[in-house]
Each structure stands twice: as C-alpha cells, then as structure tokens.
C-alpha cells in the first residue's frame, strides 16, 4: 500500500466489505479500513465499523483491538494514550503504512493545535501532546522557529483563515433551489 490515496482505498475497501461472502470480510480488510477511517478522522464510521466486526474476528486479531484503542483515544481526545498506543504497538505490514500516515497527521494536527491554543507551553507538556520527548519537542520548536526560554516554548501564533461567511438568506435560497430541483 505505497499509494497514499486513502480516500480511494477506503472506497474500494468499503465495496469489498459489502461484497464479502456471508457478509463477513477478512481481518486484514477490517484493519485497513479502520485505520484509514482514523487517518481521515472519521471517528463515527470507525465506531460503526468496530461495532459490525464480528466478535470472533476481534478476539482472534489483537491488532484490530490496538487500532480501535487508538480510535477510542482519539474519540476521548487523549493525546498521551493515542501516542502511547501508536508508538508501543508493533504494526503488521498490512496496516503499517496507514499507521505511519496516521502518526504524521496526528502530529501535524497537534502542532497546529499548539500553535493556535498556547501562548506558552512547557516542553514536557508539548512532548506528551505530540508523542515525543521534551528534547525532541524543543528541537521541533527550534525547527518551527518558535521562541524557547529554558523549558518554556512560545509558539508563533498561526493565523487561521476563516471561511467566507454566507448569509442565512443565501443559504435558505440555495436550500430552496435544491429542494425544488429534487421535487421536479
């Protein structure tokens, strides 16, 4: 799975799941699809997939449980647990490329969050939020050209581009047009 078009791969896996004989797919398919849902931050679909995986497949394949442990931690927004599970689990070749992409995406989200939410953060706290040591957090802060004062890191505030606002009347008009189109 060198290809990183995860949306297309997820779509293909969903089709394979629907076409599975007897309605039960392989543990590998479930693992890949669950990991891609987490990569896409589609926690609702991940949860529904977890619920429809037969219990015997879950118990026979501990890796599925590990992937879901990451999903539960994401659901609870427990950054420490997310990184702990991602980093302390040996992932099979079946999902390792997806998990690597997931780790990278979670790290980037964490960096953006820290840049928006903190005016100053301790290196240990930053490290735990990003799944790295405080030394690695300081190195990352230097790489990002953030201000460092001892163990305190001052992120450069990331300006957030807000989407253009549409008026309620405009939205209502679009909705009315769409409903009218559907009725015809």
Automatic annotation (TrEMBL):
<dbReference type="Pfam" id="PF10075">
    <property type="entry name" value="CSN8_PSD8_EIF3K"/>
</dbReference>
<protein>
    <recommendedName>
        <fullName>CSN8/PSMD8/EIF3K domain-containing protein</fullName>
    </recommendedName>
</protein>
<keyword id="KW-0539">Nucleus</keyword>
<keyword id="KW-0736">Signalosome</keyword>
<dbReference type="GO" id="GO:0008180">
    <property type="term" value="C:COP9 signalosome"/>
</dbReference>
<dbReference type="GO" id="GO:0005737">
    <property type="term" value="C:cytoplasm"/>
</dbReference>
<dbReference type="GO" id="GO:0010387">
    <property type="term" value="P:COP9 signalosome assembly"/>
</dbReference>
<dbReference type="GO" id="GO:0000338">
    <property type="term" value="P:protein deneddylation"/>
</dbReference>
<dbReference type="InterPro" id="IPR033205">
    <property type="entry name" value="COP9_CSN8"/>
</dbReference>
<feature type="domain" description="CSN8/PSMD8/EIF3K">
    <location>
        <begin position="26"/>
        <end position="153"/>
    </location>
</feature>
<keyword id="KW-0963">Cytoplasm</keyword>
<dbReference type="InterPro" id="IPR033464">
    <property type="entry name" value="CSN8_PSD8_EIF3K"/>
</dbReference>
